[in-house]
C-alpha cells in the first residue's frame, strides 16, 4: 500500500505539528540582528514575515497559525473579549416583554450573522480548495534547445529545486451558484496561489486549454448568455438553454471550446484526476531580459478520467458535493494527490510559423508541435480548517506574477488583468482583500498603503508617500538586478484601433483536430452531449445554426449525427469552411491518459450475513495493497458475520450508498449472503448501474449468481472452475483468488470499459 503520511495522526486527519510560540525564530530570542538579516532596524522586520527569510512548504501554515483560534476548553466571550453568561436568551423587559436595545451581545451576535456572507463570485462560485506545496525538478529536460531552465526564466519558484513553495489550489465549476452541484457539465477552474519568497504568483486557469472567446470585451456577453435566463432564473448551472446556444451559434470562434465542453473533459471523475491549463500564452524572462513564450500544463499523477452523463445526473441528488468530498477524503486518508507542472516553450520565430496565432485564447499549441516539458510537481496535502476563511475568501488575480514571469498580448488575458482586481474590490468591499490571511504573501510587504476599509496592518512612521525625507525615503525601490520586477521590454507600434487580427479568423481547424483525436466512444459522448444540450433548446433556428454553421464546419459526419437527434434536417454536404486536414494529437484523448494504477480508486464490496470470510479478507487486502479504498456495503449498518465466524462493520448501507459514488463493484461469495442479496433490489441495481456506466465489476464464487440474476447483456459469466474477464466484468468459480484479484485490478486500472452495449440494462 502507498505511504500514508497522515496515518500517525490520532484522528486520521491532516493536522500538522506546528511549532510552539517562541520556538520558530522569534526575533526577540537570542541576539539576532534584523538589519544583518535583510530587514530594517524596526522591531517588526516585515508585515508578512515570521520565517526569518527562509520559506519552505510549511511557511504559509506557520503564518496562518498566527490567526488560528481554537475554542477547546475556552470560555465564551464577545468579539471584544467580554465573558458571556447567557447566549440563548436576549435581554428583555420582563420574561415576556420586548427585547431591550442595550443588549450588546444580541446585537453583536446577530450583526455578525447578518453580515457573515460576502457576495459569491459571478463565475467560479462553486469551488473547493486545499493546501500543499510545489517543488521544481532538479534538472528538467527542456529538449535540445535549452540546457538549463535558468536559460528561459529567472523565477526562483520554477528554478530552485531545493525550494518547496507553499501553495493553495482552488478547483471550481464556472456557471453554477455556490449551492449548485459540482458534477454538472461545465468547465472547471484550476487556480493555484504560490506563496513564493518573491511574492505571490497566481496561475489562474481551467481544466481545458482553449477558451470560448477571443477578446475580454465579449466576456460579459458570454456569461450573461450562459447564466440562468433573466426572465425566469432557469436553468441553474447548465448551458442547456436557448440564450447560451443562441450566443454560441452566432460566434464561430467558440467552436473549438464547444467540442471540449461537449466531451468528457466537462465531467471530471475527480479533481485529482483532472488536467489544468494556464489557457493563455505567457512569457518567461531570464536574467538577461530575454523572453520566450510559454504555455502552462498541470498533469495529474493518477491520469485524466471522466464521469458519464447518467452518472452525473444521479450524483446531483445523491452526492452533490462528490468532487469536493472526493478531494478531501483522499487527503484526509493519507493519499496526497499530485500534479506535474509542464511547460511548452517556443520563441517568437516559432510562433510565427504556427498556422494559428498564439495570442488567440481559443487555440492550443498542439503537443505534436511543441512537447510539454515537465519541470516540477505540486502536492496537495492539507484540507482547510475553515471553508469560508480559506476557500471562499481566497482571491486570485492573473496579474500576480513574480520576476521571470510576464504577460503576452492575448486580448483575453489583458482584460483579465483588469477584471480580477475589480471583481475582488466588489466581493470584499475593500482594496485590503490582499491582507486576508489566505491571500497574504509570505514574502515581506512594505509600501505606502496605510488606510482603507478593514485595514489589518498597523503601519508605523509619519511618511506614507514618496519621495520623502522625514522617513529616509523608505521603503526603497529595488533595482531589477536585486530582484525588482521589470516588465519585458517588448517593442510595440501601431495605431489605436478596435479590430481583431486576421490571424484570429480560423475557427474550425483546431475544433476538427480535437474531433479527429477522439476515440469512437469519446466521439459518441460528444454526440450524446450535443443531443442533450441542444435538445433543451426551444428555437429551431438556433439548433439549425449550430448544425449547419458550426458543427458542419468541424466534421460533416459529426454534424449529421447531431442533427438526427435534435430534429434538424441533416446537412447534405460539408460546410464551406470545413478544414482540409485529418491531423490528430494523441494527447487530447483521455483514453491515452490512463496510467496503470488503481491508487485512490473507491471499490464497493457488497455483502450480507454469512459472507465468505476468505474472499472478503484476502481480496480487500489485495486491493488495498495496490492503493485502492475498499468500502463494505450492506443492507443495514451493524456488524455482519462471516460463514467462518469473522465479523466486519459495513461502511455504508443501501440507503446511503450508490454505485455512482464508486469506481468498481466486487461481490464476494457466501451462499447465504448472495441468496439474501438476490432477494434485494438494491444490490442488483448496484451491479446493473455500475455495468451501465462502463465500470469494472467482479464476482467470485457464489457471488457470480448475483450477476446471473441481473442478466448482464452479452457478457460471459464464469462456469465451474473458470475465471473469465469480459469487457471489465471479472468472474471466477475457482479458488485462485490471486489470479482473480490480478484480473480485477487490471480492469480497475482501465477506468471505463467502453466496449459494452449497456442500453438494455434497466438501471
From TrEMBL:
The keyword Heme applies. Residues 1-27, 49-86 have a biased composition (Basic and acidic residues). One of its GO terms (cellular component) is cytosol. CDD domains: GATase1_catalase. Gene3D superfamilies: 1.20.1370.20, 3.40.50.880, Catalase core domain. One of its GO terms (biological process) is hydrogen peroxide catabolic process. InterPro entries: Catalase (IPR018028), Catalase_AS (IPR024708), Catalase_clade2 (IPR024712), Catalase_clade2_helical (IPR043156), Catalase_core (IPR011614), Catalase_haem_BS (IPR002226), Catalase_immune_responsive (IPR010582), Catalase_large_C (IPR041399). Residues 37-48 have a biased composition (Low complexity). Its EC number is 1.11.1.6. Residues 1-97, 463-482, 566-596 are annotated as: Disordered. It comes from the Archaea. Residues 471-482 have a biased composition (Acidic residues). One of its GO terms (molecular function) is metal ion binding. Its cofactor is heme. It catalyses: 2 H2O2 = O2 + 2 H2O. Residues 77-474 form the Catalase core domain. Belongs to the catalase family. This is Catalase. It comes from Natrialba magadii (strain ATCC 43099 / DSM 3394 / CCM 3739 / CIP 104546 / IAM 13178 / JCM 8861 / NBRC 102185 / NCIMB 2190 / MS3) (Natronobacterium magadii).
Amino acid at each position: 500500500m502507498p505511504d500514508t503520511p497522515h496515518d500517525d495522526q490520532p484522528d486520521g486527519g491532516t493536522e500538522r505539528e506546528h511549532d510552539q510560540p517562541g520556538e520558530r525564530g522569534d526575533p526577540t530570542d537570542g541576539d539576532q540582528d534584523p538589519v544583518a538579516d535583510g530587514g530594517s532596524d524596526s522591531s517588526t522586520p516585515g508585515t508578512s514575515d515570521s520565517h526569518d527569510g527562509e520559506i519552505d512548504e510549511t511557511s504559509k501554515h506557520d503564518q496562518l497559525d498566527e490567526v488560528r483560534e481554537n475554542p477547546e476548553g475556552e470560555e465564551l466571550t464577545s468579539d471584544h473579549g467580554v465573558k458571556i453568561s447567557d447566549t440563548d436568551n436576549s435581554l428583555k423587559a420582563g420574561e415576556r416583554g420586548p427585547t431591550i436595545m442595550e443588549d450588546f451581545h444580541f446585537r453583536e451576535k446577530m450583526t455578525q450573522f447578518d453580515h457573515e456572507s460576502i457576495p459569491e463570485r459571478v463565475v467560479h462560485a462553486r469551488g473547493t480548495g486545499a493546501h500543499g506545496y510545489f517543488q521544481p525538478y532538479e534538472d528538467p529536460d527542456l529538449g535540445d534547445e535549452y540546457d538549463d531552465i535558468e536559460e528561459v526564466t529567472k523565477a526562483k519558484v520554477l528554478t530552485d529545486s531545493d525550494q518547496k513553495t507553499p501553495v493553495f489550489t482552488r478547483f471550481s465549476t464556472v456557471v453554477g451558484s455556490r449551492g449548485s452541484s459540482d458534477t454538472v457539465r461545465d468547465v472547471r477552474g484550476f487556480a493555484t496561489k504560490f506563496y513564493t519568497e518573491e511574492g505571490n504568483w497566481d496561475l489562474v486557469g481551467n481544466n481545458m486549454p482553449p477558451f470560448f472567446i477571443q477578446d475580454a470585451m465579449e466576456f460579459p456577453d458570454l456569461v450573461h448568455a450562459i447564466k440562468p435566463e433573466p426572465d425566469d432564473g432557469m436553468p441553474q448551472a447548465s448551458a442547456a438553454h436557448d440564450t447560451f446556444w443562441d450566443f454560441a451559434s452566432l460566434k464561430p470562434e467558440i467552436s473549438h471550446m464547444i467540442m471540449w465542453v461537449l466531451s468528457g473533459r466537462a465531467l471530471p471523475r475527480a479533481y485529482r484526476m483532472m488536467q489544468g491549463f494556464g489557457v493563455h500564452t505567457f512569457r518567461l524572462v531570464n536574467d538577461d531580459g530575454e523572453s520566450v513564450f510559454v504555455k502552462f500544463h498541470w498533469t495529474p499523477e493518477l491520469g485524466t478520467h471522466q464521469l458519464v452523463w447518467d452518472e452525473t445526473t444521479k450524483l446531483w441528488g445523491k452526492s452533490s458535493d462528490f468532487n469536493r468530498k472526493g478531494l478531501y477524503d483522499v487527503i484526509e486518508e493519507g493519499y496526497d494527490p499530485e500534479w506535474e507542472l509542464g511547460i511548452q516553450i517556443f520563441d517568437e520565430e516559432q510562433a510565427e510559423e504556427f498556422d494559428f496565432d498564439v495570442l488567440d485564447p481559443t487555440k492550443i499549441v498542439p503537443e505534436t508541435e511543441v512537447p510539454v516539458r515537465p519541470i516540477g510537481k505540486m502536492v496537495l496535502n492539507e484540507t482547510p480548517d475553515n471553508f469560508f476563511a480559506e476557500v471562499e475568501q481566497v482571491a486570485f488575480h492573473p496579474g500576480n506574477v513574480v520576476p521571470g514571469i510576464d504577460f503576452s498580448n492575448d486580448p483575453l488575458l489583458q482584460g483579465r488583468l483588469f477584471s480580477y482586481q475589480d471583481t475582488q474590490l466588489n466581493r470584499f468591499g475593500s482594496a485590503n482583500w490582499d491582507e486576508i490571511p489566505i491571500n497574504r504573501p509570505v514574502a515581506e510587504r512594505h509600501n505606502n498603503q496605510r488606510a482603507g476599509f478593514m485595514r489589518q496592518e498597523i503601519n508605523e512612521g509619519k511618511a506614507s508617500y514618496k519621495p520623502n525625507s522625514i522617513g529616509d525615503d523608505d521603503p526603497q525601490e529595488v533595482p531589477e538586478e536585486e530582484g525588482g520586477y521589470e516588465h519585458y521590454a517588448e517593442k510595440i507600434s501601431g495605431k489605436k484601433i478596435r479590430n481583431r487580427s486576421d490571424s484570429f479568423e480560423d475557427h474550425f481547424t483546431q475544433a476538427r483536430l480535437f474531433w479527429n483525436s477522439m476515440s469512437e466512444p469519446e466521439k459518441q459522448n460528444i454526440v450524446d452531449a450535443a443531443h442533450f444540450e441542444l435538445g433543451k433548446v426551444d428555437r429551431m433556428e438556433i439548433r439549425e445554426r449550430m448544425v449547419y454553421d458550426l458543427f458542419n464546419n468541424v466534421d460533416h459526419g459529426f454534424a449529421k449525427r447531431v442533427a438526427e437527434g435534435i430534429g434538424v434536417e441533416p446537412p447534405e454536404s460539408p460546410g464551406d469552411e470545413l478544414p482540409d486536414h485529418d491531423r490528430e494529437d494523441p494527447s487530447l484523448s483521455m483514453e491515452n491518459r490512463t496510467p496503470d494504477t488503481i491508487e485512490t480508486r473507491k471499490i464497493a464490496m457488497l455483502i450480507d450475513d454469512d459472507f465468505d470470510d476468505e474472499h472478503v479478507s484476502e481480496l480487500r487486502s489485495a486491493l488495498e495493497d495496490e492503493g485502492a479504498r475498499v468500502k463494505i456495503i450492506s443492507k443495514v449498518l451493524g456488524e455482519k458475520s462471516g460463514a467462518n465466524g469473522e465479523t466486519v462493520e459495513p461502511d455504508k448501507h443501501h440507503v446511503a450508498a450508490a454505485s455512482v459514488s464508486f469506481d468498481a463493484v466486487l461481490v464476494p461469495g457466501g451462499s447465504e449472503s448472495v441468496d439474501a442479496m438476490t432477494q434485494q433490489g438494491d444490490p442488483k441495481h448496484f451491479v446493473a448501474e455500475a455495468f451501465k456506466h462502463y465500470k469494472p465489476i467482479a464476482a467470485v464464487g457464489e457471488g457470480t449468481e448475483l450477476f446471473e440474476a441481473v442478466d448482464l447483456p452479452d457478457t460471459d459469466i464464469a462456469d465451474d472452475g473458470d475465471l473469465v474477464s469480459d469487457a471489465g466484468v471479472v468472474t471466477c468459480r475457482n479458488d485462485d483468488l490471486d489470479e482473480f484479484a490480478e484480473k480485477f485490478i487490471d480492469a480497475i486500472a482501465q477506468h471505463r470499459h467502453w466496449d459494452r452495449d449497456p442500453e438494455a440494462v434497466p438501471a
